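Amino Acid Chain and Its Fold in Token Form
===========================================
Structure side: the spatial fold of the chain, written down as a series of whole-number tokens.
Position: the record begins directly beneath this header, with no further notes in between.
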Amino acid sequence: LMAKWFVCLKHGNKYGAEYVNTLYSMFKRHAPGDIRFACYTENKQNLNKEIEAFNLPIVDNVRGWWYKPLFFNPNIPTQGTVLFCDLDVVIFNNIEKFYNVHPNKFCILRDFTRATRPNWPKFNSSIFRFETGTHSYIYENFIKDAFKISRKFQGDQDYIYDEVIKNNQPYQYYPDTWAESYKWEMR
């Protein structure tokens, strides 16, 4: 049986260790016990000792969210079902449904501009789930020229969307009501 992972990314100085520790605290309250928590970072300083921390492979000219395509590396240490979550997400309910809906499919949020554009098809990569080894083309194409790709697209989620669509890969949106944007939908 493959492991279930909840992973996050901390790169640079925008978010400190307290964001990872807070996310871990919310995770502990709202996740079943069989899910493991991991953080990929270049700086493990001040992380809660219970967090499984993995070294973020440093890639020239890649910063912040542009490290997300690296999660699709088929050789990533977090093997199994991976649920990625941004550090500024607030968890206030059981997260198990994010693992159970549409099993074995790539699931992602619909972009939050959906609030003003109801048929907007783009992705929001603050929460996504996949099986390790699937969608490795996202990683492989990115790593060939990360700098050029990070200049071509506005953000990682636009790149991921483009790769999934042009490779004609199946995906499912999480229901819009499962994750809402404070900025776009709640205020």
Summary: Helices lie at 17-30, 96-100, 136-144, 146-152, 156-166, 182-186. Residues 17-30 form the longest helix (14 residues). DSSP finds six helices and seven strands in the chain.
